[in-house]
Design a protein that fits this description.
Number of strands of chain B: 11
Number of helices of chain B: 17
Shape of chain A: flat
Strand content of chain B: 5-15%
Number of domains of chain A: 2
CATH topology of the largest domain in chain A: MetI-like fold
Number of strands of chain A: 0
Order of helices and strands of chain B: HEHEHEHEEHHEHEEHHHEHEEHHHHHH
Helix content of chain B: 40-55%
Oligomer: heterodimer
Largest interface: A-B, 26 and 28 residues
Helix content of chain A: over 70%
Distance between the termini of chain A: 57 Å
Strand content of chain A: under 5%
CATH class of the largest domain in chain A: Mainly Alpha
Number of helices of chain A: 13
Shape of chain B: globular
Largest sheet of chain B: 9 strands, mixed
Distance between the termini of chain B: 66 Å
Largest sheet of chain A: none
């Protein structure tokens, strides 16, 4: 190969490198995105305007599903309960993993590796199994917790047939199952904070508590944002855990949005209606995400 | 390079074509499908399932054809088959709770099997043209079990002949006495099921739900009385709330020996015979208030789905319903036969099975009428989505709606689906 040929071909090679290569790499993502998001998403959007019941040809009914949905008391009930669950779950899902992460990276900590394995373990278990485990623990007639309460001569509690206690068990199980992942995010972020900041602070006489508030927490800001965003979306979409834990019970008191969609879509075969509810949920999630990003951006600008 | 690509493409096409070929070839019932096991969806407890498994093993011995029994929890079976129909992935045959409009037309006519085996035709789903969509797998009836050990320990009597049949008030008083004297945790558990609840409603004189002259579904005043009564029982002292309101398992509760009575049905006999060892149990007459009634009917129905294995599945079913084989299945599974002229030699619990037969005989005509109405609607493709009777009762028990609201909601849901 002569040098002249090489120099003549160079622009083409460069063109390929600069344009074709990125395209080849992104094309996989684009195809996957199209197949697994755009296509089912559009199909769902289309179904939401039909009275589709799972078989036959969908019949277009316009906005009827949405009109019914906005007048459906069960929908609002599920939505309100979902908001309540989210409002309670997100702070817990933030504080507990942060607390554990701070403990695990603390210089006073002994046996951190073993503890990390223990705390990480629940993350390896499917949410369905998490639900079953906690159902057994908090079973009303035979549950472990009620058994222990009985042994201690304490009154037993109605963990499943009392709506608020059932919600409490949901929060507990959700926290137990979700802590590991958030904990890892926090550990990584905590380790990235330069030690010199703390050293300087302690020379200036700042207490550990003061250091946490003034150094750790502000520097965890990007991670915190991520955790809150993921936590909010995760809580709004909680499903598998509740399905096995108490099936949205007692009665229909703890039926959250996704379970409501599942029930109308698959138990009642109202695919069109369930699709409309899904679209509304997606819209709510998008609004929440955008608001949170706005808040984060504003915060960063000021900082 | 191009040649290689073309060759590869050609090979791929050839493979796909071969795949289609074997699929369509098998639809004629040819030998191509014989290597694939026949999938049989069903749900039941270990003992019921084992009956079919034993018969499948026998069939394999005789014909070399494998019937793969797929156990699906009862709560999921309906959804599972519905989803399978939507995904075009139906099994060869199934033991289903009812005919679903979604897959109704994907079933094969079972008239010849029903006729040949003298199957009880009242319990078969058929249309006016004579197509038989499903045949009953077996008959079940709602019934009550008591923990005999607890009753005896408390010295409380229970009816042992038809003359002594108790009212609900008498039964509740008796069970409460058992609770008080033995320290049993609960007096009664009942399956979270509209089938059991309907039996309870009949006993209070309810006519259940039927269309009125204008086609709107409605019920009589006794339904409300019965529902209100049921709520007073679900007070977490006499009946545990978590069974109807959450997911506690009444069968497990009864088996724990901590519950005086269990309102369930004949299908439990086989299970209890094997799995209850710590105490003695007995089948007793259902209480009446004032109507003596048991909700009976087909436990489930057998359907064969269209597809490459339809003929094979029909062959299996007609073998299964031959008098000798069917009697054996009933014996293995502790089932009441749904065909005439079948003599089952129950190894155990003969007295329990006799009691159920007496209860079925004494049931008022309304039970069969409602059953017939249900089957007729199923075939017409009219179905209620979900289970409004159960779901509204749960809401009522949880205080989310009043009994009047619950009944109105049930009326509306049934009218919407069935009118």
């Amino acid at each position: 190969m002569s040098t002249t040929v090489a120099s003549r071909r160079k622009p083409t090679a460069q063109l390929v490198r600069e344009h074709l290569t990125p395209l080849v790499f992104t094309i996989t993502t684009m195809v996957l995105f199209a197949i697994f998001f755009v296509w089912p998403g559009s199909l769902g959007l289309f179904y939401s305007f039909t009275s589709y019941r799972g078989v036959g040809t969908p019949k277009v009914v316009g906005l009827e599903n949405y009109v019914t949905l906005f007048g459906d008391a069960d929908f609002y009930k599920a939505l309100l309960r979902t908001f309540l669950y989210t409002v309670l779950a997100v702070p817990i899902h933030y504080v507990v993993p942060l607390f554990i992460a701070v403990l695990l990276v603390s210089k006073h900590m002994r046996g951190a590796t073993a503890a990390r394995v223990v705390f990480f373990f629940p993350w390896l278990i499917s949410p369905i199994v998490v639900g079953i485990i906690w159902r057994w623990m908090f079973g009303e007639s035979f549950g472990f917790v009620n058994y222990v309460l009985q042994l201690l001569q304490l009154p037993t509690a109605r963990w499943q047939s009392d709506g608020n206690l059932a919600l409490f068990v949901m929060l507990l199980a959700g926290t137990w199952g979700g802590t590991a992942f958030t904990m890892l995010l926090f550990i990584a972020a905590l380790k990235n904070i330069p030690r010199s900041y703390y050293e300087a602070a302690s020379i200036d006489g700042a207490s550990e508590w003061r250091q946490f508030w003034s150094i750790t927490l502000p520097l965890l800001r990007p991670t915190s944002f991520l955790v809150v965003l993921l936590g909010t979306i995760g809580a709004m979409k909680e499903f598998a855990l509740i399905q096995t834990l108490n099936d949205g019970g007692p009665g229909t008191e703890n039926v959250l949005m996704v379970q409501y969609i599942y029930k109308t879509g698959f138990e009642y075969a109202r695919i069109g209606y369930a699709s409309a509810a899904s679209m509304v949920l997606m819209l709510i999630l998008m609004v929440i995400a955008i608001i949170q990003m706005r808040i984060d951006n504003r915060g960063s600008d000021q900082g | 390079m191009k040649k290689l690509l073309a060759a590869g493409l050609g090979l791929a096409l050839a493979l796909t074509a071969a795949g289609c070929g074997s699929g369509s070839g098998a639809s004629s019932g040819g030998s191509a499908a014989s290597t694939k096991p026949l999938q049989f969806y069903q749900s039941g407890d270990a003992n019921q399932g084992n009956g079919y498994a034993k018969m499948a093993a026998k069939y394999k011995e005789q014909t070399g054809i494998t019937v793969e029994i797929v156990e699906i929890p009862n709560a999921d079976l309906k959804t599972k088959i519905k989803n399978a129909a939507q995904a075009n992935d139906l099994p060869a045959l199934a033991r289903v709770g009812g005919i679903d409009p979604i897959w109704k037309d994907a079933t094969v006519d079972l008239k010849d099997i029903a006729t040949a085996s003298k199957v009880k035709m009242d319990l078969a789903a058929k249309d006016e043209k004579g197509k038989v969509y499903s045949i009953p797998s077996d008959v079940t009836a709602v019934g009550m079990f008591i923990n005999k050990t607890l009753f005896e320990k408390a010295g409380v009597k229970y009816p042992t002949s038809e003359a002594e049949i108790w009212t609900w008030d008498e039964f509740v008083a008796a069970a409460k006495q058992v609770q008080a004297k033995t320290g049993a945790k609960y007096g009664l558990v009942m399956d979270k099921s509209s089938h059991r609840l309907n039996s309870f409603l009949y006993e209070f004189g309810s006519t259940q739900w039927q269309p009125d002259s204008s086609g709107n579904w409605t019920t009589n005043a006794q339904t409300k009385t019965a529902l209100e009564y049921f709520k007073t029982l679900n007070d977490d002292k006499f009946m545990p709330k978590a069974v109807w309101l959450a997911k506690d398992d009444p069968n497990a509760l009864f088996k724990s020996g901590q519950v005086a009575a269990y309102y369930s049905g004949s299908w439990q006999i086989a299970d209890f015979a094997v799995n209850i060892k710590d105490f003695q149990w007995a089948s007793v007459y259902l209480p009446k208030q004032p109507v003596r009634a048991t909700n009976f009917g087909n436990a489930a129905s057998m359907v064969v789905f269209e597809g490459p294995q339809a003929q094979q599945a029909k062959d299996f079913l007609s073998w299964l319903y031959k008098a000798d084989n069917y009697a054996l299945l009933c014996q293995y599974s502790g089932m009441l036969p749904a065909a005439d002229g079948i003599t089952v030699t129950y190894a155990n619990n003969k007295e329990a099975f006799d009691l159920y037969n007496a209860e079925i005989k004494a049931a008022p005509p309304i039970v069969a009428q409602i059953k017939g109405l249900g089957l007729k609607n199923e075939v017409l493709g009219k179905a209620v989505d979900g289970d409004p009777v159960r779901d509204e009762t749960v809401k009522f028990l949880n205080g989310e709606v009043t009994s009047d609201q619950a009944i109105t909601n049930i009326n509306n849901a049934l009218t919407k689906g069935l009118k």
